[in-house]
Amino acid sequence: MNHRFAMRAIFLLIMSAILPLFAQEPAQVPPLIAPPQQELQPGTAPTIPMASPSPEAQALVPISPANDAARYLAGLPLAPGSPLAALAQDPRWLAHAKAMNQAFAQLDQRQMNNIRIFQADNIAPATQQSHICVYLFSGPDFLYADAMFPNCSTFVLQGLEPVDPIPDLATIPPASLFGTLQNIQLSLNAILSFSFFKTKDMRQDFERSQLKGVLPSIFVFMARTGKEIKGVQYISLDKAGNVVQGFQGPTRGAKITFTDVASGSEKVMYYFTSDLSDEAVKRNSGLFRFCQSLGPANSLLKAASYLLHEGGFDLVRDFLLQNSSAILQDDSGIPVHYFPPDHWTLRFFGVYTAPIELFKKFYQADLRQYYAESTPKPLTFGFGYRWNSRSSTLFLAVRK
Question: Is 194's pLDDT higher than 90?
Answer without folding.
Answer: no
